[in-house]
Amino acid sequence: MFSDGVFAIAITLLILEIKIPTHEQLQQYNGLYHYLMHIWPSFLGYFVGFLSIGIYWSNHHHFFLYIVKKTDHNFNLINIFFLMTIALMPFSVAIVSDYAPDPENMSAAVLVYSISLILPQIAFIVLLSYGKKHFGIFNPDIQQDFLKKQIRKLLMATGMTIIAIILSVLYPIAALILIALIFLMYFLPPDNPSNIDTASDNGIEK
Amino acid sequence: MFSDGVFAIAITLLILEIKIPTHEQLQQYNGLYHYLMHIWPSFLGYFVGFLSIGIYWSNHHHFFLYIVKKTDHNFNLINIFFLMTIALMPFSVAIVSDYAPDPENMSAAVLVYSISLILPQIAFIVLLSYGKKHFGIFNPDIQQDFLKKQIRKLLMATGMTIIAIILSVLYPIAALILIALIFLMYFLPPDNPSNIDTASDNGIEK
Amino acid sequence: MFSDGVFAIAITLLILEIKIPTHEQLQQYNGLYHYLMHIWPSFLGYFVGFLSIGIYWSNHHHFFLYIVKKTDHNFNLINIFFLMTIALMPFSVAIVSDYAPDPENMSAAVLVYSISLILPQIAFIVLLSYGKKHFGIFNPDIQQDFLKKQIRKLLMATGMTIIAIILSVLYPIAALILIALIFLMYFLPPDNPSNIDTASDNGIEK
Amino acid sequence: MFSDGVFAIAITLLILEIKIPTHEQLQQYNGLYHYLMHIWPSFLGYFVGFLSIGIYWSNHHHFFLYIVKKTDHNFNLINIFFLMTIALMPFSVAIVSDYAPDPENMSAAVLVYSISLILPQIAFIVLLSYGKKHFGIFNPDIQQDFLKKQIRKLLMATGMTIIAIILSVLYPIAALILIALIFLMYFLPPDNPSNIDTASDNGIEK
Questions:
Q1: pLDDT(D196) > 80
Q2: Residues of chain A falling short of pLDDT 70
Q3: What is the C-alpha separation between C90 and C62, in angstroms, rounded?
Q4: How far is residue C139 from each of residues A204, B126, C193, measured CA to CA in Å?
Q5: Could you give the CA distance from residue D202 to residue D206 in angstroms, rounded to a whole number?
Q6: Cα separation of B65 and B196, whole Å?
Q7: Are D58 and B71 in contact (CB < 8 Å)?
Q8: How far is residue C133's CA from residue D198's CA, in Å, rounded to a whole number?
Q9: What is the DSSP string of D158-204?
Q10: Which chain C positions have a beta carbon within 8 Å of D70's beta carbon?
Q11: Torsion angle of alpha carbons B157, B162, B165, B170, nearest 10°?
Q12: Minimal Cα distance from D72: which residue of C?
C-alpha cells in the first residue's frame, strides 16, 4: 500500500534528525553523556513526531479500512495532498526541536510546527467531505450520523490548532501546551461504525 | 508491492531537500522567519515534486490494477527502468528548486528537470507497447481502442515535454509554464476501461 | 503493512552510517584500503544492527501472524511505541560503532546501545500483557501456557539486558559480551503454538 | 512484505549518492552543465546499482512466489543475511562510482564492488541449498532437476564473480568488463518451473 509506505517512511526518517556527533563535537561537549543531555529536545521531538505521525496513520488506516469502499481520481488526488502534509512532518519536527529552545526563534518554530499539524487535518476534512458528497466512495452501511460526528470531532481539533497557531506568535509556550492537550484528545479511541464488523482486522490479513 | 514501495520512498525523500538550518545559518539570515521566506523555492519544489511522483504513481497503480493481468521477465525489466526514472526525481526536483532562481544556471536546471519528466513517460510508453504486442500480459477484456487512446494521450504529453526540453535551453521560463500546463492535463481523471468493473478498489483490499 | 515498512526502513537506513569518504579524507587515510580497515567498527555495527532489527522483526511478524487475531486502539498505540523503539536503533547502532572503540566514551556508548536494546523488549512485554488481558485480541486457540512461556522467555532476555545496562557503566566490555550472548539466545527458533497450523506461511501470501 | 520493502528502500537510496551541488561548488565547476558532466560516474553508478538491485529483487521475488511454500526460523535468518547483503549495495555502488575513476583507488573500489556483488549470490545459494534439504519449505511440485539447474546457474555466476574479485586486484578494468558480462547474463529470463502455473502473477494480487 502506497499510503502506508509514505507514513512508514516519514515516521522512520524522524530518527535522522537525531544527529550522530563527530569526534570533534564530542570533545567540545565534554563527552557523549553531556552531548546526549544537551540534545534532549531532539529526543523529545522524535517522541512527539513519532506519536503525531503514528496517530494520523492510525486514523487514516481506520478510515480506509472501514469507511472507504472505492476511490475515484479526485479522491486519490486529495489523498496525495494529505500524504504531502504527512511527509512534511520530519521537517517541522526538526525545526521545532532545534529552535523551540532558542528564545529568539521559538515563536517561529512553534508556528511552523502548529501549521504542519493543521495541514493534515484540513486535508482529511476535505477527504471526508468529498467522500460524503460522492455516492459510492464510502461504504453504504456507514450511517450519516457517524460521519457527521467524525467531521465534528475533526473540526474541533482543527479549531484548537488554529488557536495554537495564533497563540504561537505571542505566547509560544501556551501554544505548545495547547498542542499537548490536542494530542491527549487523540489518545482516546476513534469511534467505530457501530454496525460494521471490525473483528477480523489484525493488521496483517487486510 | 515493490513498485509502490519505490514510489512511496522517492516521494517521501523529497522532504530531505528542505534543509534544516544550522544555528549559524539562521543568524546569517536574521532568524527563522527570514530563512523560511528565503527558501520558498524548496517548498515549491517539494509541492511540485510530490504532485509529479503522486500523479505518476496514480497512473502506474491504475495500469497494474486494471490492465496488466500477468507479467513476464522483459516486462519486469522495463518496469524496473520505469522505477529508475521515478527514483531520479528527488534529484532533479532539488536541482530545479535550488538553481532555477539563479539566472546563470536556470536554463541548465530547467533542462535537467524537463528531461527527468520525460524519462518516465518514455519508459511507460515502452511498457504499454510491449504489453500490447505480447498476448497474455494485458487483461484480454481491455479493448484495443482503449489502449490506443492511452498511448495517444501519453504521446501528446511526451510531445509537449519535448517542446519544454527545447525551450528550456533558450527560454527556461516558457518551459516552466509549459510544464505547469502538462501538469494541469494530468489532473484530469484517467480513463477507465469502460467494460471493466473498478468498483472494489479501495486501495487496501487489492 | 505499516509495521513491516518501519522495520524495513529502519534496517536499511543502517547502511547510511557507513560513510562514503571524501577524496580529502582518503588522502588522509592513505587510500581506500586503509580507510576501509579503519572503519571496521562501522561494518560490525551494520552487521549487528541488521541482525538485531531482523530478529525483532521476525518475532514481531510471527506474533502478528499466529497470535494476534484483531487489534484495538490501545493495542495499536502500544504497537506504535514498540515501532518507535525499533526506529531508534539506527541511532544507537551508529553511536556504539562510532564510540565504543573510544576509551573515553565507550561506557556511554555501550549504555546507549543496551538501553536501546531493552526498550523494544519492554514494549513487547506490554503488548503481550495487554493482549493477554483483553479477550478477543489473541487467537482464542492459543493456549495460556504458550503465552506464559513466551512472556517468561522475554523476561529472561530483559533481565539479562538490565544486567548489561548496569555492567556498561563500569565494565562496558563485559556488557558487550553479555549482549552477544543474548543475541545467540535469539538465534534459537521461536516456539510455535503447537496447535496452530503454520504450514502456509511463505511470507508472501499472508 | 518486509523483503520487498528492504529491496525498494535500498534501490531508492541510490539516488542520495548523486549529490546536489552547493552554490560554492557550482562556481568552482563553472556552472551546472559542467558539474553534471563532471559527475557522470555517479549517474552510471546509479544506473548500474539500480539494475543490480532490480535484478536481484526480480529473482528473489520469483523464488518466493513460485518455489517457497513455507518458511522456518533458519530459512528466515538466512533470508535476513541475504537482505543484509542487498542493503550494502548503496554503499558499494557509491564507492565504485566515486573511486573507480581515480587510478590510485580504482583497484580497491572495484574490489569492494565485486565483493558486494558476490555476497548476495552466496546468501542465495545457502538459501536454495537449505530449502532443498529441508522437506516442506519448497513447493513439492518443483522438480529436483529444476532446482539443480538453478543452483548450477548461480554457481556459474558466482564463479565468474570470484574471477572478477581476483582480477580487480591487478586488472580492475578487466574485472569491470567481466562484471558487465555477468549482468548481461542476468538479463536472460529466469526459468520457470515448467509444471507450475505462473499465469496469475501481475505483481499486485500476490
A1: no
A2: 188-206
A3: 23
A4: 14, 48, 11
A5: 8
A6: 11
A7: no
A8: 45
A9: HHHHHHHHHHHHH-HHHHHHHHHHHHHHHHSPPPPPTTS--TT--SS
A10: 198-202
A11: -120
A12: C189
Mean pLDDT value across chain B: 87
Match 517539494 to its residue by C-alpha cell: B46
A101, β-bridge pairs? none
SS3 A138: strand
What one-character DSSP code corresponds to residue A201?
A: -
* H or E element, residue A92: helix A89-99
How far, in Å, CA of B179 to CA of B2, rounded? 29
Touching chains, D (3+ CB pairs < 8 A): B, C
In Å, how far are B121, C74, C90, C98, D101 from D118, measured between CA atoms? 34, 45, 25, 27, 22
Contact of A39 with chain B, judged by CB distance below 8 Å, is answered with no
B189, A73 Cβ separation under 8 angstroms: yes
Task: Read off the C-alpha cell for A109.
Answer: 518554530
Half-sphere exposure of D96 toward its Cβ, with a 13 Å CA cutoff?
27
Residues of B in contact with A97 (CB under 8 A): none
**Smallest CA–CA separation between D29 and chain B, in Å?**
12
- 3-class secondary structure, B35: helix
- Alpha helix (H) residue ranges in B29-102: 32-38, 40-66, 73-87, 89-99
Is residue C160 scored above 50 in pLDDT? yes
Q: Where are the alpha helices (DSSP H) in chain A?
A: 2-13, 23-28, 32-38, 40-66, 73-87, 89-99, 106-133, 144-170, 172-187
- C-alpha to C-alpha distance for A93 and A38, rounded to whole angstroms: 17
* Min Cα–Cα distance to chain C from A103, Å: 28
* Interchain CB contact of B141 with D (< 8 Å): no
Cell of B64: 497494474
**Crossing angle, helix B103-133 and helix B40-66, to 10 degrees?**
0
Residue D108 near residue C33, CB atoms below 8 Å: yes
**In a mutagenesis test of the B interface, which of D2, D16, D19, D20 is the best target, namely the one with the most B β-carbons within 10 Å?**
D20
SS (H, E, C) D12-36: HHHHHHCCCCCHHHHHHHCCHHHHH
pLDDT tens per residue across span B136-154 = 888 888 778 888 888 888 8
Q: CA B61, CA B65: separation in Å to the nearest integer?
A: 6
SS3 state of residue B137: coil
Spacing of C-alpha A79 from chain mean position: 14
Angle among Cα A166, A169, A174 to the nearest 5 degrees reads 75
Residue C35 CB partners (closer than 8 Å, separation 6+): C21, C25, C26, C29
Look up cell 587515510; give the residue.
Answer: C29
Whether chain C has a CB inside 8 Å of the CB on D73: the answer is yes
Q: B197 by DSSP, 3-state: which?
A: coil
Rg (CA), chain D: 19
Q: What is the pLDDT of residue D192?
A: 58
**Element of type H or E holding D145:** helix D144-170
Q: How far apart are CA A144 and CA B69, in angstroms?
A: 38
Grid cell, residue D58, equals 526480480
Closest by Cβ to B5, choosing from A3, A5, A77 = A5
Chain B residue whose CA is closest to A89? B15
Q: Tell me if D22 sits within 8 A of B97, measured CB to CB.
A: no
Local structure of C69: helix, strand or coil: coil
> What pTM value is reported for the model?
0.89
Give the three-class secondary structure for B138: strand
Between the alpha carbon of residue B182 and those of residues B51, B82, B160, B173, C187, the distances in Å are 12, 19, 7, 14, 55
Residue B65 φ then ψ, to 5°: -80, -40
Tell if the CB–CB gap between B68 and D36 is shorter than 8 Å. no
pLDDT digits (tens, 9 = 90+) for A10-54: 999 999 999 999 988 898 998 999 999 999 999 999 999 999 999
Q: Extract the C-alpha cell encoding B9.
A: 520512498
Q: CB neighbours (10 Å) of residue A47?
A: 16
Among A64, A94, A102, the residue with its CB nearest the CB of B20 is: A94
